[in-house]
Amino acid sequence: MTRRLIEDWLPIAALGEESVRERRSMTALPPTYYLHVWWARRPLVASRAAVLGSLLPSTADRERFLHMVGIHGDPVASRRRIDAAKRKGQRFEGEAYSYSRAFGYVPTAQDRAWAADEQRKLGLTDISVLDPTAGGGSIPFESARLGYRTFGNDLNPVASIVERATIEFPFAHGMEVHRKFRHLADEYVKRREERLTHLYPKEPISDSIPTNYLWARTVRCPHCEGKVPLSPNWRLLADGTGLRFQTHLGSGPGDESRRLTFTLVHNAKDQSQGTVSGGDATCPFEDCGRLISGEEVKEQAQAGKMGEQMYAIVFRNRVVTGKTKAGKPKVKWVRDFRAPRAEDDVEQFVKSQLDEMLPEWEALDIVPTEQIGELSNYDRGHRLYGMYKWTDMFSPRQLYGHCVGVEIFRALLSEETTAGRLDESLKAAFVSST
Ligand SMILES: C[S@@+](CC[C@H](N)C(=O)[O-])C[C@H]1O[C@@H](n2cnc3c(N)ncnc32)[C@H](O)[C@@H]1O
Ligand SMILES: [Zn+2]
Question: Which of 107, 206, 226, 412 has the most beta carbons within 10 angstroms of its beta carbon?
Fold first, then answer.
């Protein structure tokens, strides 16, 4: 017998629903997702089913297979019940699913013994699984959890290190690597905050922290000299939250102080029109309003004349929602947006700090000043906009932040090495590739 289960049967509907369920809550994704972002990462439950289904004979017990995959009920029927309630305009009451999400189930020794018995029928005893293009590592992760000797590979060094950190290190060192990582991460964050806090103006609302500064690239209108931030629209959320700009015309066309400022609005109809469409820009100043061609935009970019303007700030506000059983405050961090104040734009200050540090960072090979073309065929049209080096991709604040991060990381690694503490699990906690 050579036929495999996956050749004859795969519970696609159940796997499909369970895969959607795996990703439904953006705050409770499988832990592997949080280690590092990966594009096109496959759902764990589908990966496990594909690996296991390829290694069992077609005669294997299907219920047993579903159990080992973590599907311990009927996800399709659950989905139907939820959808029916939705159609009637009701909220589904109680637990829609009779079991926890499948990826949380770790195959037991009994499961593995059953699979091994089945595999003997195929003449399979010493199984290796290879994923030659493993990306974020869902397939090797599940293969390893199923207990198989597993090999993952990828030509992208980021994927490769993500795979090692996701699969190899935890399997090799267990909770020890987690403990050491937490310790390092706390120290890293502490040092980084000390070095970067002064570059972040205090939020106007107490108990708030900024999480994102949103910037638009700018060009000068060739007709009126106004500073034009480029964006196809000024939407922030689908619910109508967005921005409306005010024009400051100065003394009229030709005045270089002409600029926009922004206010936050909550209705889509109150948002201003975008300033770019199909590659061309439109001057937003009402006493000009002329077209700025895509050629002009690119020309300015290639001449290094493109600027940037902050147009919104995303922050999190600490809200106490009640008390825990132990009497501690229950805290929720609620995301909100605001328009920038004049004092939020500290980019010139950041730039001066960066300029001061750059020679040293360049000497220490901390800044990626290489030409992009030397290392990669990556091409997203950035050259058209005058970006040739990796450093051109970053704003001064981003570059400053990343370089400080590398510096602290290196310092921590060197301190631990000098102190003679760099054993294998600590090396893993550093996600050190050597
Ligand atoms: C769609 S992703 C894989 C996603 C993965 N199954 C997961 O769940 O995350 C494809 C991967 O193949 C890698 N790749 C493409 N060509 C390759 C090659 N010739 N050798 C090795 N890896 C390659 C890419 O870098 C990418 O990470
Ligand atoms: Zn203009």
Answer: 226
